[in-house]
Amino acid sequence: MNAHDEIRVQHNGPIATVVFNRPKIRNAISLNMWGEIARVTNDLGREPSVRAVVYRGSGMEAFASGADISEFKEVRKDPETALRYNAQTFAACEAIRGCAKPTVAMIFGYCMGGGMTMTMAIACDLRFAAEGAKFGIPAARIGIIYGADAVSQLVSLVGPAYSKDILFSARTISDVEALQIGLIQRLLPPDQLESYTYEYLGKVAANAPLSVRGAKFTVASCLEGLTAERRRRLQGMAEEATGSEDYREGTQAFLEKRPPKFKGR
Hints:
Largest sheet: 6 strands, mixed
CATH superfamily of the largest domain: 2-enoyl-CoA Hydratase, Chain A, domain 1
Shape: globular
Strand order of the largest sheet: 1-2-3-5-7-9
Distance between the termini: 40 Å
Number of strands: 9
Number of helices: 11
CATH class of the largest domain: Alpha Beta
CATH architecture of the largest domain: Alpha-Beta Complex
CATH topology of the largest domain: 2-enoyl-CoA Hydratase, Chain A, domain 1
Order of helices and strands: HEEHEEHHEEHEEHHEHHHH
């Protein structure tokens, strides 16, 4: 099975789903898969017909059980190969985090290690989980130090103390605790998670794409720092939205008391 088979993209109207397809090994992510995740995410981010992206594992046993450690003796065997490997995982993380479209991790079962931190769940905008999901970052049991970009995402979600707790202990976190500390935003029965996720994103997809994109960039700017360059870009995005066809459609639909039909321009 090659990376194209192990990373599948499905389309349901304006919502795309990226599936990690290695259910026999709990969807562990291989080196080739990291590169494919970056590629398909960048493609979906540029596709006008796509308004939201879901990431999930194949089946219901695992979102992703982390990196495929069986490869490490070859692809991450020394500092040089580790740097190349980390560059691949960083590119995947940046692709998801930088995607202009809303992203949701739909989590069944295990969400561990690289599947949780380096890309996947924490890089997504939101995380919806099924009851029984388990979370953890076992880097301290392997001898790995995650990069600052990955850890900063964790800190922005759960704060510094919980981040240290998770990283120091390498313990497994329950679904209820994950919800309590803000690691996930929804916790639902397994038979309701999929329908809820797509219903939620259907509502998001019906909103004005320029507004949603602007909201995502605004929140990111607040977290990363409202620099002069970011303020200029935010002002430009606001002006673009106000001058758009969608703005005229949205105001007219409001006055006519009908649902708006946004085109993203």
